[in-house]
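User: Can you predict the 3D structure of Ketol-acid reductoisomerase? Sequence below.
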Amino acid sequence: MDRKLDADIDSAPLAGLRVAIIGYGNQGRAQALNLRDSGVDVVVGLREASSTRNKTASDGIATAPLIDAVSAADVAMLLAPDETLAAIYREIEPGLKEGCALGFSHGLAIRFGFIVPRSDLSVFMVAPKGPGTALRSLYEVGEGMVALYAVAQDPKGDTEMLALAYGKAIGCGRAGMLASSFAEECEADLFNEQAVVWGAVPEILIAGFDTLVEAGVSEEVAYMECVGELKLLAELIEARGIAGMREAISNTAELGAVMGGRRIVDDVVRSRMSAILEEIRSGQFANALKDEEASGYPLLRESRETARTLRVESGRKRLQD
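Assistant: Sure. Here are the predicted C-alpha cells for Ketol-acid reductoisomerase:
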C-alpha cells in the first residue's frame, strides 16, 4: 500500500481555505489545534448551549454559531459522534456553500447512509488511527500519526489532493497517509472495536483475572499478571512486531503462549469473528447504534455502570492505594 509522506504532499489545496470543525471532542479539539498551529484558518462551530465553549476559549480557538461557521467555510469537518452526524448534517446543509468540501474522520455515516451529501459537495475522509489526545501530543513534539484517507465524492477532481493536504496539516503526513475507502476504513474499524482490541481483549483480561482470583490468587497479583502486562505486550509488538515480541520474551513465556493461545482463540472464536464482520457489513450494528442513540443510550449506561463494579477494578485500586 502506497504511503504518502509530507514530502509527497502539496499543501497548496488547503492554502487560504477556512475549515469549520464541527465537534470539539477528542478528535475535534486535536484537529482544530493542529490545523491552527499549521497556519490554517480554522473555526469551531458550536450550538448556543454547547458545553465546550470554555474549552475553546481557553485554547484560543475561534468559534461561531453552527450555521455561521459552515456558511463561511470552504471545508466543513464533521467530528461529532457518528450517531449524531445525520441530524447535524440536516441542520448545516442549507448553510454549506456550493462546492464546499465535507470531511469525516470515520466512514460510518457515509458507508451506512446516515448522510447522503449533496452532489455538489466534495466528500473526503482523513482518519487518524489513534485517539485525538495522541494526535495532538505527537504533533506538538514534531511527530505524527498514521492516517487513512479516502474520497467518496469528487465533483471538481481535486478532492484527493485536498484530503492529503488536510492530513498533512494535522500532522499525519509525518507518519504516513494510506489510501483507503469509506467502506474499508469503517468496516475494519468497527470489527476491531467489537472483535479485537476494545471488545475481545478487555473480556479476556477480565476472564483471566476472575479465573485466578477464584482459584485463590490475590487480586493484586491477578491484576498484575493478567492486566498489568498488557502495556508491555503492546510496546513490544509496536517495536518489534508479533514475531519479534515472541523472540523477546523468555522461552517459558513463549512456549506457554504457543500451547495456550490457540486453545483460547480456536476455530470457534474465528468463526464468531467472521459472524461479527458480517453483521457489521449488513448494517446491523449501524442500525443498533441509531436505536441506542434514539432511546437515550440504555445499553451504554448499563455497561458503564457494570464496569465500575467489576472485581478487576478492585484489584486495580488495591495496587494504587
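The two ends are 47 Å apart (CA to CA). Residues 54 and 242 are 44 Å apart (CA to CA).
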